[in-house]
Amino acid sequence: MKNYVIESLPDYFKQYKKSIKNPKKFWDKIADENFVWYQRWEKVLKHDMSEAKIEWFLNAKLNITKNCIDRHLSSRGSKHAIIFEPNNPEEATQYITYQDLYDRVGKMANVLRAQGIGKGDRVCIYLPMIPELAVAMLACARIGAIHTVVFAGFSASAVAARITDCDCKLVITSDGSYRGDKKIDLKGIVDEALKTCPSIGKVLVVKRTGSAVTMQEGRDEWIAPLLDAAPVDNIPEIMDSEDPLFILYTSGSTGKPKGMMHSCAGYMVYTAYTFKNVFNYKENDIYWCTADIGWITGHSYIVYGPLLNGATTVIFEGVPSYPQPDRFWEVIEKHKVTQFYTAPTAIRALAKESTEWVEKHDLSSLKVIGSVGEPINDEAWHWYNDHVGRKTSPIVDTWWQTETGGILISPLPYITPTKPTYATLPLPGVQPVLMDDKRNEITGNQVTGNLCIRFPWPGIARTIWGDHQRYKETYFTAFPGKYFTGDGALRDEVGYYRITGRVDDVIIVSGHNLGTAPIEDSINEHPAVAESAIVGYPHDIKGNALYGFVILKESGEGRDRDNLRKEINQLISEQIGPIAKLDKIQFVSGLPKTRSGKIMRRILRKIAEGDFSNFGDISTLLNPEIVEEIKNEKL
Ligand code: WTA
After folding, report:
1. What's the gap in Å between 373 CA and the centre of ligand 1?
2. Which of 32, 253, 287, 407 qualifies as a cystine partner to 505, CB 3.0-4.6 A?
3. Looking at ligand 1, which atom is closest to the CA of residue 423?
4. Residue 588 sits in which domain range?
5. Which helix (H) or strand (E) holds 274?
């Protein structure tokens, strides 16, 4: 474990230095000593940053599920791989051992094969947070099919857009899902989505809520009888290191969502290594990440990272406030959770409740607590540290992205001294650089700039599905030769990083990345709307909330404004999902634009924030007078 586990701060600096001096040697050893391969690689890394072409462990052969499951069976067969905590606390917890997981994944893999799914086929998974979700992903990986999990809060048209973009053959869904005291009709959403998806030949349905569903003859089938009849053993597909493992969609600042494609070997090595070190994972720990598996955090740190390390991972179906605002703390106490990983938006919501809710529970099992998804503000950091970490379990503020596959910047617990709101230091193999707007590297400390990464790490996404040009343009052209993250960052006097937020048109609402363009596109489809612009403004629980500035067509001007607001949000809900609804909608007669017609969001952002000072020079605008009007009518 010499190269796999970082033991102390001096060891971190030593490993870091080694990883930068000779990255290939560094990752070669880690890959060699900690995984099972059918065939070793011929070359560790081949890359060309200007073409956005990155390959790791070339020509190696593997199957990630052998590493997640099979190899643990002899020593950990009866150990819990998954603890499933249902939405309703009255419902029994499910304990799934590594042996059970092997059986369930084998059966599901055989069911998929029997449906004609094979290597390279795309399978859409639209499921709530139930064990079948992890099982379905692993079953795809087992047979070499590419899973694309769609967050079960997305609307029918968002599901359809994703299925169409990567041309899925089959969907795995459920009759419904539970969220707190609500039941959601997932199958109905899939039915609606499939009206426009001719590529789908089959829908397999998991029974969860028992709600009535319509099953389309020949297309839809309950999965349970198929699983019952399927054999357990399944010989894994032999995958090339660079074969796709999954596609996961993330918002872009423009146009349609980007299908980030991750490949088998690099993703495996990177998520396993970072899980072990960032969470200081030890055998017999009980690890819990509250993210949804529909996001990258769930992929890497509920499913793959933990299972690769033979860990016990908790899958929680519910919400933090149900049945009461102490559900998180209750679950930690119940399962004696040792690592707890959640998002600032959840922390802020729970910090609003009386501290009695958290004090009521014994959280002494916790060793490490983590944060991910957006910058954690000072107040939330301290509340988390004082009440959940009890000033003894360090906070790991982990910075990373769907595109990066795994955590890039984070403290190592009990090793890196933490600092409130700072993600602190890069992990070994990660070379952050700050760049100014003129593309010059900013050296030294106590500086801020655009955060880029200078050299590839094994977990980086390989492409945008079906659009390599877009991948190259989005991430590798703003700062030639470097990967551009889209985030701004500050480097303090000791070299610690603090992520300051997005520098592009992506807005993070309750930890969900939302691009402005797709939301504006939906608003503009409303028959009464001529044009719109949305910006984020600070919100004490969600981090950011959305503020829309909408210009009406003449035909819309006589309409009741509150009804229009409802209709616009309804449209957004249908086309994207309720997460993208606007908190405020202001009707305006124009939008501030540059002479080339570009909307000056910077000004709109300031107005939405209520900061009327220092708009900068607005005299170069096409229509400077509009600023005054918008300001005066601010909601
Ligand atoms: C933001 C989530 C500050 C950031 C894993 C990034 C963070 C985007 C942090 C990616 C953090 C994530 N501190 N900001 N610890 N973690 N972000 O793709 O803006 O859903 O670019 O991946 O979230 O969001 P994504």
Report:
1. 4
2. 253
3. 15
4. 505-632
5. helix 264-278
Question: Does residue 122 fall inside a structural domain?
Answer: no
**Ligand 1 atom closest to Cα of residue 409:** 15
For residue 139, which amino acid is it? A
Ligand 1 pocket mutation, candidates 304, 395, 508, criterion most atoms within 8 A of CB: 508
Instruction: Please give the average pLDDT of every successive group of 10 residues along the chain, which has 635 residues.
Output: 89 98 98 98 98 98 98 98 98 98 98 98 98 98 98 93 96 97 97 96 98 97 98 97 97 78 98 98 98 97 98 97 97 98 94 94 98 92 98 98 98 97 98 96 96 98 97 96 96 96 88 89 91 93 95 89 96 93 95 80 91 80 88 91
Q: Confirm or reject: Cβ of 374 under 6 Å from ligand 1.
A: yes
Model pLDDT, residue 601: 86
Q: What is the DSSP string of 231-258?
A: -S--PPPPEETTSEEEEEEE--SSSSPE
d(CA 8, CA 5): 9
Summarised one tens digit per residue, pLDDT across range 473-515 is: 999 999 999 999 999 999 999 999 999 988 888 899 998 989 8
**Probe ligand 1: pick from 250, 270, 347, 399, max atoms within 8 Å of CB?**
399
Domain boundary among the residues 368, 397, 426 is at: 397
For ligand 1, is residue 487 a contact (CB within 6 Å)?
yes
Amino acid in position 597 = G
- Ligand 1 pocket check for 423: Cβ under 6 Å: yes
Rounded (to 5) percent helix, strand, coil in the chain: 35, 25, 40
Atom of ligand 1 nearest to the CA of 486: 21
Q: Give the Å distance between the CA of 372 and the centre of ligand 1.
A: 6
**pTM here?**
0.93
Q: Whose CA is nearest to atom 8 of ligand 1?
A: 401
Atom of ligand 1 nearest to the CA of 485: 21
Domain assignment present for residue 67? The answer is no
Residue 334's Cβ-count burial label (10 Å; 0-12, 13-18, 19+) is middle
Q: What is the CATH number of the domain that holds 550?
A: 3.30.300.30
Is residue 389 within 6 Å of ligand 1 at its C-beta? no
| Tokens (6 digits) for 242 | 């660079």
Cβ atoms 320, 288 nearer than 8 A: no
Q: Whose CA is nearest to atom 15 of ligand 1?
A: 399
Q: Ligand 1: does its nearest atom lie under 6 Å from the Cβ of 57?
A: no
Pocket probe mutation, ligand 1, options 258, 374, 407, 474, max atoms within 8 Å of Cβ: 374
> Of ligand 1's atoms, which has the minimum distance to the CA of residue 499?
3
Task: Give the span between the Cα atoms of 267 and 263, in whole angstroms.
Answer: 6
What total of structural domains would you count in the chain?
2
Q: How far is CA 362 from CA 307, 327, 333, 390, 469, in A?
A: 27, 13, 6, 11, 52
CATH of the domain at 317: 3.40.50.980
Instruction: Evaluate the CA torsion angle 19, 20, 21, 23 in order and state its sign.
Output: positive
* Residue 45 located in a structural domain: no
Q: What is the pLDDT of residue 2?
A: 66
Does residue 17 belong to any structural domain of this protein?
A: no
Q: Is residue 200 a contact partner of residue 218, using CB atoms and an 8 Å limit?
A: no
The last residue of one of the domains, among 377, 397, 417, is 397
CA dist., res. 62 & res. 70, Å (int): 12
